[in-house]
């Protein structure tokens, strides 16, 4: 039988993004003839070293850092683990108190839970109805033995931005490190570590049309941090293991593109998001927009549709050739509604009916229109099926 | 993650909707947990036995919840009350070609809803006939 594979409308770019063809081109030689180990002294090795250092400069340049402050990792999750555990272990003689928020990515929350088992004391800050962290609570949570504050820059489910600059002002003159997970911000908004005033910042390549399996942390000079992986001392001792040269090269090119195309990409995301935010409530009754109307990354929009369940929406969209995701974690290992929406005070039954749409560089108007065309019918079908009044 | 059978029932769920004057209604689940199922049954006599002649459902929940509701209604139709009472969650998930383990507990509630609907019917019948109420 012959079936025509139609193009998937991919609206799940906050999960991952397709590889930009320019990134793939840049990577290809390092998957083939340029196979050197950057630690080798010979020509083949030197070639690989140059490629890695070139990528490091590009990533540094994208966030206003110097290349010596960029350390490549194997993922965004590894970056967050390194930032938090690395600072915790290196500074535990000074204190064992860490402050984070209730809406962090699981790789931050579970790292903190792990540290609690090892005697650290963690404060999880509340957020308001828009998902913005409570700065007064942050101030009153600071202690003499606080060593680290870790607050994500943009939330991955609702897109809300946190007041990182304000937090860095609060921490000024105190001997407390500030870490931010910025994987959802790179390529969506300008990102500058100096303006933000952070000590450590996490990035990931596959969120910006780069390859999976490579990330980076920015670590301000002078930050005391232990490695998680010990070995040959690569990445100036902070992350041993032979460098993922093709991945790092891809990340460098992706970061450069993210910088060069930022205004173009951002304007498109803003246009698409605005269209959804305006038109979804016009086309569907009883919709709740989740997140902050202004303080947000432009490519993520999250809605709740009371009386229906998120996974069912996602799967009906999938049958229509549209890839999106749910805020509730029902598709993964847990049946709990989203911890982010719950922390924002949204009732569990409404949180269960959430849908996250996230745009990327390769989306066009047609994709947005197609979603607007099919979504009302899906919600109607599910609501007709629902016993909830 | 879902079998083809599950997707088939999700795509085109059978026997969706409410029922006018049902003989029994059963509801299980909790919106807080993300799954609520309501089953309506019609009971009639055939060859001296009581059979479920019609069944409808309404479900709030994930793919597994909707598919298992639909599958249950397909299994049950035309069964005697005794046969219907013996239907388990396992029967439903087996008929669907299996469900992801995490979904078995929370989302495969249809058989429980049916049991409640049958109990509802029996208790109403008991009242009508002046007999002992079963609960």
Strand and helix layout:
The complex is a heterodimer of chains A (389) and B (135).
Chain A: E1 9-10, H1 21-31, H2 43-62, E2 70-73, H3 76-90, E3 97-101, H4 106-117, E4 121-125, H5 135-141, E5 146-150, H6 164-171, E6 177-181, H7 193-196, E7 200-204, E8 215-219, H8 245-260, H9 262-283, E9 288-290, E10 300-304, H10 310-319, E11 322-323, H11 339-343, H12 348-351, E12 354-358, H13 365-385
Parallel strand pairs in A: 1-11, 3-4, 3-5, 5-6, 6-7
Antiparallel strand pairs in A: 2-8, 7-8, 9-10, 10-12
Chain B: H1 4-11, E1 24-30, E2 35-46, E3 49-60, H2 63-76, H3 81-85, H4 89-95, H5 101-107, H6 110-128
Antiparallel strand pairs in B: 1-2, 2-3
Helix pairs in contact in B: 1-2, 2-5
What series of H and E elements makes up the topology of chain A? Answer: EHHEHEHEHEHEHEEHHEEHEHHEH
From the alpha-carbon coordinates, what is the Rg of chain A to the nearest angstrom? 22 Å
Through-space gap between termini of chain B = 38 Å
The number of helical elements of chain B comes to: 6
What is the name of the CATH architecture of the largest domain in chain A?
Answer: 3-Layer(aba) Sandwich
Portion of residues within helices of chain B? 40-55%
Question: By helix and strand content of chain B, what is the structural category?
Answer: alpha+beta
Uncertain stretches of 5 or more adjacent residues of chain B: 131-135
Spatial gap, N to C terminus of chain A: 45 Å
Number of DSSP-assigned strands of chain A: 12
Quaternary assembly: heterodimer
Radius of gyration of chain B: 15 Å
Please give the most extensive interface between any two protein chains, plus how many residues each contributes.
A-B, 24 and 27 residues
């Amino acid at each position: 039988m012959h079936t025509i594979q139609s193009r998937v409308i991919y609206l799940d770019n906050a999960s991952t993004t397709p590889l930009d063809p320019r990134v793939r081109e840049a990577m290809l030689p390092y998957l083939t003839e340029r196979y050197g180990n950057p630690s080798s002294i010979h020509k083949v090795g030197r070639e690989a070293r140059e490629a890695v250092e070139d990528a490091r400069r590009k990533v540094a340049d994208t966030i206003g850092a110097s290349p010596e402050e960029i350390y490549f990792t194997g993922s965004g999750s590894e970056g967050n683990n390194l930032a938090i555990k690395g600072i915790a272990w290196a500074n535990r003689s000074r204190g064992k108190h860490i402050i984070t928020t209730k809406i962090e990515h699981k790789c931050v929350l579970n790292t903190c839970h792990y540290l609690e088992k090892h005697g650290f004391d963690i404060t999880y800050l509340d957020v308001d109805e828009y998902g913005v962290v409570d700065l007064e609570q942050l101030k009153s949570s600071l202690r003499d033995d606080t060593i680290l504050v870790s607050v994500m820059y943009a939330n991955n489910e609702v897109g809300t931005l946190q007041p990182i600059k304000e937090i860095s002002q609060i921490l000024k003159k105190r001997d407390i490190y500030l870490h931010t997970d910025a994987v959802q911000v790179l390529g969506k908004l300008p990102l500058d570590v100096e303006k933000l005033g952070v000590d450590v910042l996490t990035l990931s390549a596959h969120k910006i049309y780069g390859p999976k399996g490579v990330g980076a942390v920015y670590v301000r000079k002078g930050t005391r941090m232990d490695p998680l992986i010990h070995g040959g001392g690569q990445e100036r001792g902070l992350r041993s293991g032979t460098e993922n040269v093709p991945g790092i090269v891809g990340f460098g090119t992706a970061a450069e593109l993210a910088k060069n195309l930022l205004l173009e990409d951002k304007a498109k995301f803003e246009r698409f998001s605005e269209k959804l935010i305006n038109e979804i409530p016009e086309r569907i009754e009883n919709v709740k927009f989740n997140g902050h109307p202004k303080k947000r990354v432009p490519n993520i929009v999250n809605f709740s549709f009371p009386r229906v369940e998120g996974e069912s929406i996602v799967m009906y969209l999938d049958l229509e050739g549209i890839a999106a995701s749910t805020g509730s974690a029902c598709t993964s290992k847990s049946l709990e509604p989203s911890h982010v929406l719950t922390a924002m005070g949204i009732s569990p039954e409404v949180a269960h009916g959430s849908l996250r749409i996230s745009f990327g560089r390769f989306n066009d108007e047609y994709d947005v229109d197609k979603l607007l065309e099919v979504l009302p019918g899906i919600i109607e079908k599910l609501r007709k099926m629902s016993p909830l009044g | 993650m879902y079998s083809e059978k599950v997707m088939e029932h999700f795509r085109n769920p059978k026997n969706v909707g409410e029922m006018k004057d049902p003989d029994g209604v059963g509801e299980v689940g909790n919106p807080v947990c993300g799954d609520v199922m309501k089953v309506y049954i019609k009971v009639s006599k055939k060859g001296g036995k009581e059979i479920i002649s019609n069944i409808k459902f309404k479900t709030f929940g994930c793919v597994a919840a909707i598919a298992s509701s639909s599958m249950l209604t397909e299994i049950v139709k035309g069964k005697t009350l005794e046969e219907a009472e013996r239907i388990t969650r396992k029967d439903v998930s087996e008929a669907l070609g299996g469900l992801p383990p995490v979904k078995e507990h929370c989302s495969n509630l249809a058989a429980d809803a049916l049991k409640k609907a049958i109990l509802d019917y029996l208790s109403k019948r008991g009242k009508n006939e002046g007999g002992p109420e079963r609960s």
